[in-house]
From TrEMBL:
Protein name: ParA family protein
Organism: Acinetobacter tianfuensis
Cross-referenced SUPFAM superfamilies: P-loop containing nucleoside triphosphate hydrolases
Record-linked Gene3D superfamilies: P-loop containing nucleotide triphosphate hydrolases
InterPro entries listed in its UniProt record: CobQ/CobB/MinD/ParA_Nub-bd_dom, DNA_Partitioning_ATPase, P-loop_NTPase
Domain (CobQ/CobB/MinD/ParA nucleotide binding) ranges: 4-182
Length: 214
Protein backbone atom coordinates (compact mmCIF):
# COMPACT_ATOMS: atom_id res chain seq x y z
CA UNK A 1 0.00 0.00 0.00
CA UNK A 2 1.26 3.47 -0.87
CA UNK A 3 0.18 6.28 1.43
CA UNK A 4 -0.13 9.87 0.21
CA UNK A 5 -0.57 12.68 2.73
CA UNK A 6 -2.09 15.98 1.59
CA UNK A 7 -1.06 18.60 4.14
CA UNK A 8 -0.18 22.22 4.82
CA UNK A 9 -0.58 24.24 8.00
CA UNK A 10 -2.57 26.87 6.07
CA UNK A 11 -6.33 26.32 6.01
CA UNK A 12 -8.27 26.91 2.81
CA UNK A 13 -5.41 26.07 0.45
CA UNK A 14 -7.32 23.25 -1.24
CA UNK A 15 -6.21 20.19 0.72
CA UNK A 16 -9.57 18.42 0.60
CA UNK A 17 -10.18 19.10 -3.09
CA UNK A 18 -6.68 17.80 -3.80
CA UNK A 19 -7.29 14.67 -1.72
CA UNK A 20 -10.67 13.83 -3.26
CA UNK A 21 -9.39 14.55 -6.77
CA UNK A 22 -6.46 12.16 -6.32
CA UNK A 23 -8.64 9.50 -4.71
CA UNK A 24 -11.21 9.61 -7.50
CA UNK A 25 -8.55 9.65 -10.23
CA UNK A 26 -6.92 6.51 -8.85
CA UNK A 27 -10.27 4.80 -8.23
CA UNK A 28 -11.43 5.61 -11.75
CA UNK A 29 -8.23 4.05 -13.05
CA UNK A 30 -9.17 0.82 -11.29
CA UNK A 31 -6.98 0.93 -8.19
CA UNK A 32 -8.30 0.00 -4.74
CA UNK A 33 -8.36 3.35 -2.98
CA UNK A 34 -9.16 4.52 0.54
CA UNK A 35 -9.57 8.12 1.67
CA UNK A 36 -8.62 8.84 5.29
CA UNK A 37 -10.01 12.01 6.88
CA UNK A 38 -7.81 13.32 9.71
CA UNK A 39 -9.55 16.69 9.92
CA UNK A 40 -12.19 17.37 12.58
CA UNK A 41 -14.20 19.28 9.98
CA UNK A 42 -14.63 15.87 8.29
CA UNK A 43 -15.09 17.38 4.82
CA UNK A 44 -13.70 14.30 3.08
CA UNK A 45 -16.00 12.00 5.06
CA UNK A 46 -19.00 14.16 4.18
CA UNK A 47 -17.96 14.10 0.51
CA UNK A 48 -17.83 10.30 0.57
CA UNK A 49 -21.32 10.15 2.09
CA UNK A 50 -22.63 12.13 -0.89
CA UNK A 51 -20.81 9.99 -3.42
CA UNK A 52 -23.18 8.15 -5.83
CA UNK A 53 -23.16 4.38 -5.55
CA UNK A 54 -22.41 3.94 -9.25
CA UNK A 55 -19.20 6.00 -9.01
CA UNK A 56 -15.76 4.44 -8.75
CA UNK A 57 -15.49 3.01 -5.24
CA UNK A 58 -13.45 4.80 -2.58
CA UNK A 59 -13.26 3.33 0.91
CA UNK A 60 -13.93 5.70 3.81
CA UNK A 61 -11.49 5.86 6.73
CA UNK A 62 -11.92 8.03 9.82
CA UNK A 63 -8.56 9.17 11.21
CA UNK A 64 -9.85 12.12 13.25
CA UNK A 65 -8.81 10.38 16.46
CA UNK A 66 -5.13 9.67 17.00
CA UNK A 67 -5.77 6.06 18.02
CA UNK A 68 -7.28 5.40 14.58
CA UNK A 69 -4.23 6.60 12.65
CA UNK A 70 -2.63 3.70 10.82
CA UNK A 71 -5.82 1.72 10.28
CA UNK A 72 -6.75 1.04 6.65
CA UNK A 73 -8.96 -1.44 4.78
CA UNK A 74 -7.29 -4.65 3.66
CA UNK A 75 -6.03 -4.86 0.07
CA UNK A 76 -5.89 -1.07 -0.25
CA UNK A 77 -3.40 -0.08 -2.95
CA UNK A 78 -3.48 3.69 -2.36
CA UNK A 79 -4.40 5.48 0.83
CA UNK A 80 -4.97 9.23 0.51
CA UNK A 81 -4.93 11.23 3.77
CA UNK A 82 -6.69 14.57 4.07
CA UNK A 83 -4.78 16.30 6.89
CA UNK A 84 -6.25 18.98 9.18
CA UNK A 85 -5.32 22.64 8.94
CA UNK A 86 -2.75 24.04 11.38
CA UNK A 87 -0.92 20.72 11.20
CA UNK A 88 2.20 20.81 13.35
CA UNK A 89 4.08 19.16 16.20
CA UNK A 90 3.41 15.58 17.20
CA UNK A 91 0.30 15.30 15.05
CA UNK A 92 2.31 16.23 11.95
CA UNK A 93 5.02 13.72 12.85
CA UNK A 94 2.43 11.00 13.39
CA UNK A 95 0.75 11.50 10.01
CA UNK A 96 4.05 11.92 8.17
CA UNK A 97 5.28 8.66 9.71
CA UNK A 98 2.50 6.89 7.80
CA UNK A 99 3.22 8.51 4.43
CA UNK A 100 5.40 7.73 1.44
CA UNK A 101 4.56 11.02 -0.27
CA UNK A 102 3.62 14.45 1.10
CA UNK A 103 1.68 16.74 -1.23
CA UNK A 104 1.49 20.37 -0.12
CA UNK A 105 -0.99 22.50 -2.05
CA UNK A 106 -0.76 26.27 -1.88
CA UNK A 107 -2.50 29.17 -3.56
CA UNK A 108 -0.75 32.20 -5.11
CA UNK A 109 -1.30 34.52 -2.16
CA UNK A 110 1.03 36.09 0.38
CA UNK A 111 -0.61 34.22 3.25
CA UNK A 112 -0.34 30.81 1.57
CA UNK A 113 3.24 31.40 0.52
CA UNK A 114 4.29 32.60 3.97
CA UNK A 115 2.46 29.78 5.76
CA UNK A 116 3.87 27.15 3.40
CA UNK A 117 7.40 28.46 3.90
CA UNK A 118 7.02 28.05 7.68
CA UNK A 119 5.37 24.63 7.31
CA UNK A 120 8.19 23.27 5.17
CA UNK A 121 10.74 24.63 7.62
CA UNK A 122 9.02 23.07 10.65
CA UNK A 123 8.72 19.59 9.19
CA UNK A 124 12.44 19.43 8.42
CA UNK A 125 12.94 18.43 12.05
CA UNK A 126 10.78 15.32 11.64
CA UNK A 127 13.04 12.27 11.41
CA UNK A 128 11.38 10.75 8.35
CA UNK A 129 11.73 14.05 6.47
CA UNK A 130 15.28 14.64 7.66
CA UNK A 131 16.39 11.24 6.40
CA UNK A 132 14.80 11.82 2.99
CA UNK A 133 12.41 8.89 3.31
CA UNK A 134 9.37 10.80 2.12
CA UNK A 135 8.76 12.42 -1.24
CA UNK A 136 7.69 16.07 -0.89
CA UNK A 137 5.70 17.57 -3.76
CA UNK A 138 4.38 21.12 -3.99
CA UNK A 139 1.17 21.79 -5.89
CA UNK A 140 0.34 25.28 -7.18
CA UNK A 141 -3.40 25.42 -6.67
CA UNK A 142 -6.26 27.68 -7.83
CA UNK A 143 -3.98 29.63 -10.11
CA UNK A 144 -5.66 32.28 -12.25
CA UNK A 145 -4.20 32.73 -15.75
CA UNK A 146 -2.04 35.84 -16.05
CA UNK A 147 -2.73 36.82 -12.44
CA UNK A 148 -0.13 39.13 -10.90
CA UNK A 149 0.03 36.87 -7.87
CA UNK A 150 1.31 34.04 -10.05
CA UNK A 151 4.66 35.82 -10.23
CA UNK A 152 4.80 35.87 -6.42
CA UNK A 153 4.32 32.14 -6.26
CA UNK A 154 6.88 31.59 -9.03
CA UNK A 155 9.40 33.68 -7.08
CA UNK A 156 8.68 31.57 -3.99
CA UNK A 157 9.35 28.32 -5.82
CA UNK A 158 12.55 29.76 -7.24
CA UNK A 159 13.71 30.84 -3.79
CA UNK A 160 13.22 27.43 -2.21
CA UNK A 161 14.65 25.79 -5.34
CA UNK A 162 11.70 23.45 -5.77
CA UNK A 163 9.27 23.81 -8.64
CA UNK A 164 5.66 22.70 -8.19
CA UNK A 165 4.86 19.30 -9.61
CA UNK A 166 1.78 20.76 -11.32
CA UNK A 167 -0.15 24.00 -11.78
CA UNK A 168 -3.90 23.65 -11.19
CA UNK A 169 -6.17 26.38 -12.52
CA UNK A 170 -9.03 27.82 -10.53
CA UNK A 171 -12.29 26.26 -11.77
CA UNK A 172 -15.79 26.35 -10.31
CA UNK A 173 -16.29 22.74 -11.43
CA UNK A 174 -14.32 21.46 -8.42
CA UNK A 175 -16.70 22.84 -5.80
CA UNK A 176 -19.82 22.24 -7.87
CA UNK A 177 -19.03 18.54 -8.34
CA UNK A 178 -17.86 18.11 -4.73
CA UNK A 179 -21.35 19.03 -3.52
CA UNK A 180 -22.56 15.78 -5.12
CA UNK A 181 -19.72 13.54 -3.97
CA UNK A 182 -17.98 13.76 -7.32
CA UNK A 183 -14.76 15.13 -8.75
CA UNK A 184 -13.58 16.11 -12.21
CA UNK A 185 -12.27 12.57 -12.71
CA UNK A 186 -15.79 11.17 -12.46
CA UNK A 187 -16.69 13.05 -15.64
CA UNK A 188 -15.92 11.89 -19.18
CA UNK A 189 -17.18 14.88 -21.14
CA UNK A 190 -14.64 16.59 -23.38
CA UNK A 191 -14.76 19.89 -21.50
CA UNK A 192 -13.34 18.20 -18.39
CA UNK A 193 -10.34 16.73 -20.23
CA UNK A 194 -8.21 19.88 -20.13
CA UNK A 195 -8.83 20.15 -16.40
CA UNK A 196 -7.93 16.52 -15.80
CA UNK A 197 -4.68 16.70 -17.77
CA UNK A 198 -3.35 19.40 -15.43
CA UNK A 199 -3.10 16.66 -12.80
CA UNK A 200 -1.09 14.28 -14.99
CA UNK A 201 2.37 15.39 -13.77
CA UNK A 202 1.29 14.80 -10.17
CA UNK A 203 -0.19 11.39 -10.98
CA UNK A 204 3.01 10.46 -12.84
CA UNK A 205 5.08 11.42 -9.79
CA UNK A 206 3.16 9.33 -7.26
CA UNK A 207 2.48 6.15 -9.22
CA UNK A 208 4.22 3.97 -11.77
CA UNK A 209 1.62 3.50 -14.50
CA UNK A 210 2.76 3.99 -18.11
CA UNK A 211 -0.71 3.56 -19.61
CA UNK A 212 -2.76 6.51 -20.86
CA UNK A 213 -4.91 8.18 -18.23
CA UNK A 214 -7.02 10.53 -20.28
Amino acid sequence: MKTILVANQKGGCGKTITAISLASALAKKGYKVALADADNQKSALQWLKQRPKDSAEIQSVDWRHEKSIGDAPKNTEYLIIDAPGALSGEHAAQLISEAHTLITPLQPSFFDIDSTRRFLKHIQDIKRIRKGKIQILLLANRVKPNAASSKDIQDFFAKIEQEPIAWISERSAYSQLAMHGLSIFDKTQKNYLSIQTQWQPLLNAIIDDPSDWF
